[in-house]
Amino acid sequence: MEKYFVTYNQAIGLKRLGFDDPCISYFDTCCQFRGLSHNLTYQILKNDGVLAPLKSQVFEWARDKYNINICISWRDDLLNYDISLTEMKKGGYFYYKESFNNYEEAESACIDKLIEVIKTQNS
After folding, report:
1. pTM flag (> 0.85)
2. How many structural domains does the chain have?
3. Per residue of the chain (123 residues), what is the pLDDT tens digit?
């Protein structure tokens, strides 16, 4: 199941950007203090945790809140996955594109780029 959720670092980045949509999972930050890795806990979020959204939730959030559209598509001609992020906004157009060997890499890179773009916009 963990492959459907963002990574811990992505969750921290999203939290800093104000992501607070309801999630079914969270990263229990207490694990840090016990010397354990950041284990994904499938429980309702507690006050000491960091939301762990599904990747699809992040894509919806970016679309609804920032008008950024995400596309991950297979390219038969290049035998890889392309990601593209587009945004239509007043007075400008943003576009980003990159290629990856597998879908999971593309999905994760897409979220990393979303965080970077939104962080830049909010600066």
Report:
1. no
2. 1
3. 778 889 989 999 999 999 988 887 777 755 432 323 445 443 444 456 788 889 999 999 999 998 888 889 898 888 899 888 887 665 555 667 788 999 999 999 999 999 998 998 888
